[in-house]
Structure formats: C-alpha cells, structure tokens
Amino acid sequence: MIDNKKLFEDISYRFDDLGLLKDALTHTNNSKKKNLKFQRLEFLGDRILGLAIADILFRKFVNESEGDLTRRMHTLVNEETLAKIAKEINIGEHIILSYNEEKAGGRNKNTILADTLEAIIAAIYLDKGYTFVFEFVSQHWDKYVLEETTPPIDPKTKLQEWCQSKGFNLPLYNQVEKSGPDHSPEFIIKVVINAEFEIEGLGLTKKQAERKAASNALLSEYVLNYEK
C-alpha cells in the first residue's frame, strides 16, 4: 500500500488524482512485463522531462550554442542522473513491483528508478499541468544543472571525437551478450576502434553498456598512450 503522506513529503508534490499516482508507481502488474499504463506514462514523462530541461537550460545559459545546450541536456536526462534523483527523493520505497522484481532487488535498480521517475513526471503533468512539472524539475535537478561549469561531453561523443582526431572511422558498437531474465537483463557491448582495438562494457541497458564500453576505451592504454 502506498504511503501517500510520506511520498508527498519525499517528492515535494501533492497529487489530487491518486489513481494517476498509483499508475505511475505500478511498474509491473505481473511477473513478465511492465504495466501498460506505466509504460504510457513513462513515454509521456520522458518527453515532458526533455521539454522542462530544455526550458531550464535555455533560461540559465543564455550565451551557449545549441550544441552546448544539447550536451548538457543529454547528461541531465540520462538514466544515471534520473536514478540519482529518484534515490534522493526515495522513489524506490514506493514502487509497486512484481514478486520477481522485488526478489531481484528492483527497488535499487537504476533502470526501474529512472523509468518510475519519468512516469511520476507524466502523472504530475496530467494531474496539474506543465507549470507544476517545471517547478518539480527545477527543484530536484537544480544542483545537477549547475554542477557542470562547462557543457559536459558523454563518453561516446568523446571517443568519437578522439577517433576523428586520429583520422579513424567512427567507433563500432556490437552486442556481445544479453543475460538475465526479461525483467532484469544485462548487456555486454563491445566497441571496436580502428579495426584493431576492442574493449567491452557492461550495463543494464544497451545504451548504458555502450557508454561503459566507451568509458573503458578512453581509459585504456590504447587511447591514453596512442602516439605518445
């Protein structure tokens, strides 16, 4: 059962429509797949979060280019950032999970936390409108917006730029393995550089594994010592 009072305190928002709130927290309605209502809210929340973050960045960084704003945005809406914020506001305590997800530690998994936060954002939008979403995002993302004094570059972009600077083709990412149950998969992705160096990364999503592979490549002796 959802402790509405505790949740409202944790997220600094009070829902009028408790049905929307329950839909946003019900990650699964059986052991095999996400709840359809949750999926739809997650879809909508992803887009609304993007709008709110773009709005915030446009207002705060008035002298930055589209490319700089885009790099900031990618960092602020990625799974890692969403999961950090979800943990800070205790979303994991309130998620409704299947037995299998609960047993597998779903309350602490970045993918589930990030998806649920997106669903909650959509529910806030449907409950009271964009103004309240903007206030919610401004409050909980503020320190992350201000964290980077210069626009950050994610590992995949940084590796791509390094390859281009050396006259190489773009890095190639290939899935090596997918393991685990459908509700909690793990991926191993291999990145290949210049057809002569390869390294793997592990993640709970393909994108996460690709970023990890790129990070591992950037820290590898091949990249660090190239042409030294």
From TrEMBL:
GO terms for cellular component: cytoplasm. The keyword Hydrolase applies. The keyword Cell inner membrane does not apply. Residues 4-129 form the RNase III domain. It holds the Pfam family Ribonucleas_3_3. It comes from the Bacteria. It is an enzyme of class 3 (hydrolase). Its cofactor is Mg(2+). This is Ribonuclease 3. The lineage of its organism: Bacteria, Pseudomonadati, Pseudomonadota, Alphaproteobacteria, PS1 clade.
